[in-house]
Amino acid sequence: MKAGFYLGNHTYEVKEIKDRKPVDHEVKIEVAWCGLCGTDIHKFEGKNGASVVVPPIILGHECSGIVTEVGENCENFKPGDRVACDPSWGCGRCEWCKKGYQNFCIHRHGVAKGFAEYVYPPEENVYKIDHSLDLEDAAFTEPLSCVLHGMDLLNIESGSNIVMYGMGSIGSLMLQLLKLTAPKNLIVVEREENKQELAIELGATKACTDQEIEEIADKLNVDYVIECIGLKNTMEQAIHIAGKRAKVLLFGLGDPEENVSFNQFEAYTKELSIYTSYLNPHTSRKAISLLESGVIDTKKIISARLSLEEMGEELKTKKYSRKGKVMVSLSGKH
């Protein structure tokens, strides 16, 4: 079977690797679609993703597909099932797993390397999807589940003033969830005009630049700030514009070699709460339910549908990922 590898030193290559039969509780899935994640780009650029990166590795983890075989001890799936994957496996036995935080499992590792024609996750990481849900939409399960975890941390009250930074693919998902909290004001900070237009289309009450938000925040107590870009300057500004008793979520993945600074006295006098969000514990089923309900529009977020072979150029240039979500078509089934 074919698989797309990051080999280190800004090198990507599609290789033929051996296919195999699933064993024990494994579910063999013919991958239909896999999303390109920002962490894949981080890995290609020589930085870590959610974990330390040691190439060569198969990229991708946001995948959906159809079950073709199951291991001898698999109880809940059969060939033909349409499924989505949670790529992050926890052992269930360590102290963090027992506390309910599988995202901090000391044995945690990825079990669905989606830039491949087949993946073999254990059945506890596989979720059936309704026939009404398009497989391309289902590939948004993992990023949406991560966004849901961030939202759960904030516990947003209705009628609030919310500012969100960035209308990339994650920001576009986050915005739609924020809209469901019934805010008074939902303001998106985004420099590009076409992305500002998309923000309004997806439910923002206003879209503005990072210069304009300073003036707005001077007149409006911002209750929640969500940064979905991961840049030092936007993270620092997100903390600065937050209002009294505000909650700030630094959701975007930052450069591990770059520190973020803020004025502690300013944060102290406003009694800020600053959050980060790591992975997606217990949110995959909720993500699928939201996708099946139709309240999340994924089609407006997709900027390109590419083959495994075309991903090498995309990782170098980021031509389409700068505009939205890049989807990798494996079987291309729906």
From TrEMBL:
It is an enzyme of class 1 (oxidoreductase). Keywords: Metal-binding, Oxidoreductase, Zinc. GO terms for molecular function: L-iditol 2-dehydrogenase (NAD+) activity; zinc ion binding. It comes from Anaerostipes hadrus. PANTHER family: L-THREONINE 3-DEHYDROGENASE. Gene3D superfamilies: Medium-chain alcohol dehydrogenases, catalytic domain, NAD(P)-binding Rossmann-like Domain. Residues 24-130 form the Alcohol dehydrogenase-like N-terminal domain. Residues 170-292 form the Alcohol dehydrogenase-like C-terminal domain. Belongs to the zinc-containing alcohol dehydrogenase family. Its EC number is 1.1.1.14. Pfam families: ADH_N, ADH_zinc_N. This is Sorbitol dehydrogenase. Its cofactor is Zn(2+). It comes from the Bacteria. InterPro entries: ADH-like_C, ADH-like_N, ADH_Zn_CS, GroES-like_sf, NAD(P)-bd_dom_sf, Zn_alcohol_dh.
